[in-house]
Amino acid sequence: MPLLDQLQKDMATAMKAREEARLSAIRMVKAALMKEKVDSMKELDEAAEMKVLNSLIKQRRDSAEMYRKGGRPEQAEKEETELRLIESYMPAGATEEEVDAAVAAAIAETGATTPKQMGQVMTAAKAKLAGKRVDGKLMSDRIRAKLS
Length: 148
Description:
Blueprint: H1 3-17, H2 20-40, H3 46-69, H4 73-87, H5 96-110, H6 118-128, H7 136-147
Helix pairs in contact: 1-2, 2-3, 2-4, 3-4, 5-6, 5-7, 6-7
């Protein structure tokens, strides 16, 4: 089922259950996807949908972190709740073991030995984890640790 259809169905369910927070988050996701569809002037494929969802996830993580630093834990909780809802529409994420294995294989494949070659290793590791959601910061930290 296309993601927009799934969101529409979930939105109706949330309305019937009177779940205001969930409904608001679903509307926000749907609006972001519709905006991307209008901007690109074509139907969204799965990669484009995942790109939009990834950007929304990153925004929620950053916002939650800023609210925590600013002493506003209730707002941070709201952002994290939205984050979990958005993640529920994403494919399964890569485990830390899978990330480590992909990084090790990418380093061996590229023959990288210095941090200057980090970009090549990142590209190769992302290719090995295609189809899975990967936290770029986690992967970057792992590669940096192995190349240092």
